[in-house]
Amino acid sequence: MTTERERQARWLLLLAACGVALYLTFQILRPFLSVLIWSAVLVLLFFPLHRRIAHRLRRPSLAALCSVLLVILVVLVPVGFVGAAVGAELARFAQNAQERIGPILADPMAGGRVQETLDWFALKTGLEVEVSPEKIADLVGSLSQTALKGTFNVLGGVFGASMKLILVVFTLYYLFRDAERIREGMPAQLPLPRGDAERLVARTGEIIQASVNGNLVIAAIQGLLGGAAFAVLGLPGAIVWGVVMTILSMLPLVGSFLVWAPAAAWLVLSGSWGKGLALALWGGLVIGTIDNLLRPRLVGGRARMHELSIFFSVLGGLQLFGMLGFLVGPVVVAVARSLFEIVLRGGDEGSEPAPAG
Description:
The chain is mainly α. The protein has a domain at 21-175. The chain contains 13 helices and no strands. α3 packs antiparallel against α5, α3 (60-106) packs antiparallel against α6 and α9 (238-250) crosses α10 (257-269).
């Protein structure tokens, strides 16, 4: 007959074996975590449409295939075109930067305005900034070489990115096909009471939806509007600066202001008052208000996180997870808060967790 000590020993051995297996599984899947996370995010984002497609077709495999094609057409193809355009534009900028800057530096009127601005800055702050055409030309040349090297590095990673893209598409099909079964079975896999597990899964989905709609979609619209303004005004690097504005717009409390405002100021200092004023008005009245107009409709009250919490969770997520930190950071913080609330309630399922702040 098995004694209590033998049962405890077997239980500890089982826990140790489970820990080792989970660690080895993590090491096996770690190179593909970005693929799995992006696939899950895309499935969650397109799941309402996939559910309608599946309801009409009534064939899970065919519905999954249609949903994958939809994701490719709506997301992957445009992102691929933008990435290729950014790479080509960076290469052109690296080759022609000095030729573009040279005439501006040689223009006495533009150079005089820049020097007047620097003199005013020195008078007000006591800090003298010495700027000469030679130094600016050297700086532009150095930046051009850096941009060119970075472009080659990006192009060198195209093969790896293409392989990851293929894996994402492959994963999307199976996640779409089995989405309902995964959604229904996930709470049972968590070591929590059923009610808490279901709320935790729902909360995670809400945060991902809010992050995608509140950050990625709104930031993409702001970057598109900013890049279009640059193109209409004839500013160089419209696609590149549009992408930069998109990235900055994802950061709470920052935004695309850091790009279009200096550009508008540069146009004014260069004598293009009309273009500078037009860019400032477009940035302030259109780009700047997009967030206030769209966020309540796209996000609503799903995020339920304080702006400061989102800010630091995004920055910390970027440092820890790279680009995935835009999504993973807020999710980790929200899940941690939910788990902490469950611990404080002692596992009591009778009370709902308080809204995150």
